[in-house]
Amino acid sequence: MRTRERGSMKKVMNLKSLLFCAMLALAISLNAVNVQAGTLDYLGNTIDGSVLTDEQESSGEYLSVARSTYLHQGTVRITNNGNGYVGIFGGTECNVSCNTVKLNVYLERSSGNGNFYSYQKWENVEYNTNSVYMSTQVKVEKGYYYRLRGYHSCTKNGVIENGGSVTNGIYIG
Questions:
Q1: Residues near 77 by Cβ (< 8 Å), separated by ≥ 6?
Q2: Which residue positions in the chain have pLDDT lower than 70?
Q3: CA-to-CA distance for 170 and 154, rounded, in angstroms?
Q4: Could you tell me if 150 and 103 are in contact, meaning their C-beta atoms sit under 8 angstroms apart?
């Protein structure tokens, strides 16, 4: 009879050990730590002239050189409006009324470990004026850095003056 009890006890012990190992494996798999670099690990890095930040907004500006006759300045600004929305503003200002005033705004995205890539763009043209502005808000995918690049130009009597502006990358999480 004792042999029978020992055999039964071994089965219970083996079953308990098996159950314990299964629960341990499950617990470990549920608590696994992702060792990949997180997007915020890139804060402070510079990509293509833009510093990666967790600030709520960033502005970039083009100021014309002293010899510029028509183009005065250009500006772009990106803001973190919360819940995955970014605010976008841009403007081109000329010293005098010009035949054509242009403002192209490019929203770009980066994961932090590579370049910025085009995400969305807006092209704005006004005629016989000295400025053009645009402002909008867009929903973007969270977990990336976003920046704006601006292209600003003024044309008068066939003479084109242009310049570019760029913001830092702000993290949208």
A1: 57, 58, 59, 60, 87, 88, 89, 90, 148, 167
A2: 1-37
A3: 29
A4: yes
